[in-house]
């Protein structure tokens, strides 16, 4: 009853563009369970779309939030930094796959992380092109909408998008697209649309989420890594949905055994508090000038994610 009343109120004041999957209004949530306003209890398989990897209201996260608020809420880590800012970067750069020395930047949303990964890739290579995959989801800002490989509902009516973005099919046995088909499509892009020496980055999800939960085949990921190395293109792994143990390892690229040049992280990093990161090879990520990358409001979220 209360669910229905709230849903009617919502329909009057919330734009339909913010879709509503379930007319179920949450009263409380704990670990894997949610309770709605009518007293029904559910097992939460949605997890805020792959965000609450440690469960709802994990006690360590709750404690970290409380403790931080007692101390300070904001200073701007780019003006007067604090320990959690450094400590989390130390942890993530250690966890990121591969032997190359890494550095990190912190942002607030997944789309911001993707935007910044593209900025870094362009600054490092001096090139403009970016290749993404059909069915891929990278966010809802202008740049990331452009990268997202799905028109309805993410791009319909919202153009124009930034130029120099190209899409290739993601290999998908279910839809009859082999690794060879996808690799050929990349070669076709190089032949028809953009020469590889103008491509800054190829961005891919190790497991497509919005695209339908399709895993990149091992031979495809390895071939794309080799293609990037051949042409001096940077490989960006968008681990925003697959990161933080969603696939059984800390990052999905660990299953494949390749080292991306840049990784985007968000969602599970802070269990619902808005923090995202780009972690990448130090010599790559340091291509941006001081002040060229950053965000203001981070402190609470950094503390949460190290909890
Ligand atoms: C793979 C991937 N990239 C980027 C994003 C965008 O993240 P945000 O919604 O935090 O901007 C998402 C969000 O669903 C995602 O799954």
TrEMBL record:
Listed EC numbers: 2.6.1.19
Top-tier EC class: transferase
InterPro entries reported for this sequence: Aminotrans_3, Aminotrans_3_PPA_site, Class-III_PLP-dep_AT, PyrdxlP-dep_Trfase, PyrdxlP-dep_Trfase_major, PyrdxlP-dep_Trfase_small
Classification via Gene3D superfamilies: Aspartate Aminotransferase, domain 1 (3.90.1150.10), Type I PLP-dependent aspartate aminotransferase-like (Major domain) (3.40.640.10)
Stretch forming the signal peptide: none
Cofactor(s) this protein requires: pyridoxal 5'-phosphate
The UniProt record lists the keyword Metal-binding: no
One Pfam assignment: Aminotran_3
Keywords, ordered alphabetically: Aminotransferase, Pyridoxal phosphate, Transferase
Molecular functions per Gene Ontology: 4-aminobutyrate:2-oxoglutarate transaminase activity; identical protein binding; pyridoxal phosphate binding
Transferase listed as a keyword: yes
Similarity comment: Belongs to the class-III pyridoxal-phosphate-dependent aminotransferase family.
Protein name as annotated: Gamma-aminobutyrate:alpha-ketoglutarate aminotransferase
Species of origin: Vibrio maritimus
